[in-house]
Specification:
This protein is α/β, with parallel strands linked by helices and about 250 residues long. The chain is about 45% helix and about 15% strand. α1 links the parallel β1 and β2. α1 packs across α8, α3 runs parallel beside α4 and α4 packs parallel to α5.
Length: about 250
């Protein structure tokens, strides 16, 4: 459908060398967008770029560490140098260096989570929104988590950052909406990625989850990639400031 096409659009996807980010990059490229694949290691990005090109898409690699503002500025600059613009920004990269109670949360770990999962997203958004405003067209997508709408005894800091991402999207949607820039979040539940391997690869954790999940399965990266495509395209043109939960029904099952 034409509503889901992104021909002529340029998209940056952070954390796109694997998992959810890779699926998002592949979906956007498959819809005609020129996609910048970015993560810390350029070799991993190059592998994704090769795969996208082999499938007939258009992509390039730019390595960047989201904790480094200069590297993010270079990411945006290299994108503009190659393709002249940024139409879609997907902030997918995130960190979670600590698992355990907040009572024992080290300041260093908390600061890293807040920096990488919230502040870096704002940095990137502020780098691209002015040009989007000039064209009166743009879409920013932040990959959050259902952790942002649930309490946790072991992922507290991460959940705080993901709740903040939802509010960041709402704030930016209000601020930049008059310029026809849409800002939304996707909040996945448990998805089969390397990032969440400690959860889904543990039968003692996974089995009870599957029994109480209405769809009786965990997510796959492509379950999230397709939602990002909708939000990036004309199909999502009247959606802004929202958080789309994709969790197989976990959060409505009690």
């Amino acid at each position: 459908m034409q509503a889901f096409r992104l021909d002529g659009k340029v998209a940056i996807v952070t954390g796109s060398s694997r998992g959810i980010g890779r699926s998002i990059a592949e979906h956007l490229a498959g819809a005609g967008a020129k996609v910048v694949v970015s993560s810390r290691k350029v070799a991993a990005c190059d592998e994704v770029v090769s795969s996208i090109r082999a499938a007939g898409g258009n992509a390039m690699s730019v390595a960047a560490n989201i904790s480094d503002r200069a590297q993010l500025e270079n990411l945006v600059a290299e994108t503009r140098k190659a393709w002249g613009r940024v139409d879609v920004l997907v902030c997918n990269a995130a960190s979670n260096p600590y698992y355990g109670p907040m009572a024992k949360l080290p300041d260093e770990a908390f600061n890293k989570i807040l920096q990488n999962n919230i502040v870096s997203n704002l940095w990137l958004a502020n780098m691209v929104m002015p040009e989007m405003a000039e064209r009166r067209d743009g879409s920013i997508i932040i990959v959050s988590s259902i952790g942002g709408i649930k309490g946790s005894s072991v992922l507290g800091a991460y959940c705080i950052s993901k709740a903040a991402d939802m509010q960041l999207a709402r704030n930016l949607a209000v601020e930049w909406g008059p310029h026809n820039i849409r800002v939304n979040c996707i909040a996945p539940g448990l998805v089969k990625t390397d990032f969440a391997r400690a959860l889904w690869d543990n039968p003692e954790y996974l089995d009870p989850v599957l029994k109480t999940t209405p769809l009786r399965r965990i997510g796959e990266p492509d379950d999230i990639g397709a939602i990002a495509l909708m939000l990036a395209s004309r199909a999502g043109a009247f959606i802004t400031g929202q958080t789309i939960v994709a969790d197989g029904g976990v959060t409505i099952a009690g």
